[in-house]
Specification:
Length: 303
Amino acid sequence: MTTTLMQPGQIEAAAGNIPELRLPPADVFRVRARRFEQLADGHAMADYLRFAAGLAHAQQGLLDAGPAGELPAPGRIEQCREHGMPPLAPAGLARPAWHDTARALARSVQPLLTPAGRSALQPLLDGQAAWLDEQAAYLFDNDLEHVDAAVAPVIGAALQVHWTQLARRLEPARVARPELPNLCPVCGSHPVSSVVRIGGAENGLRYLHCTLCSSEWHVVRAKCSNCDNTRDIGYYHLEGGNRVVEAESCPECRTYLKIVHLEKYPQADPVADDLASLTLDLLMDETEHTRSGINWYLIHGHP
Ligand SMILES: [Zn+2]
Ligand SMILES: [Zn+2]
């Protein structure tokens, strides 16, 4: 008779049957648009949230229209997996037609804007390809001093459509776990916020949501995603609020990342709820914690 004993590594693998990587679902922007609309009701930033809803709605239309970009060759994707590199890192990745996507989004949202807002978007419609690429590079580098804050949400939204389309065509098993928990394993970008998912194998797990490709990766709760610290993690929320959104702060690196609790409100969205809880960012500013999340729908400090 033979007995099969499980080694510690195997036990972990058996228990670790949790999805480490969630590639973006087909309706990611539709869910976001609905949530932006819901949050706009009675909100101090109602007009802006409705603009963001219109932008997300237009993004969904372009995502539905089908793939415009080409995935890297299978050999290249495998090479990235072997070396623990994100396969869709912006550097060197072709992004044909993204200028057209940006202009199509700008035309879709212009009717939602005031005359001043409409003319602020005009450079995007008139701009040369080189200017658009320069603006995209500023966003990728998180160079908020040089980015044109009025056009950044639309440029960011166009890039999101392209990267989300590509990410949806990957297989999770072909993507390596990230070396740094604060960067997306698919494209290497920073997170917007994190979200505690509900239902199925993901129930109660916390995922970081990518600002560029809409993928989500698992990072255990009560751990700073910016520096790996697990000691004295603090949680802040607005007084009297429903605590759907909290700010998870780290005393080591003095940063915070929002955490969105779907168990408290299943329709919440890591991007829409992050933007609509701007008041919590102002509170965190007073506690002298720096925001580690990046939300392209609103470049912080430049509403
Ligand atoms: Zn990503
Ligand atoms: Zn930290």
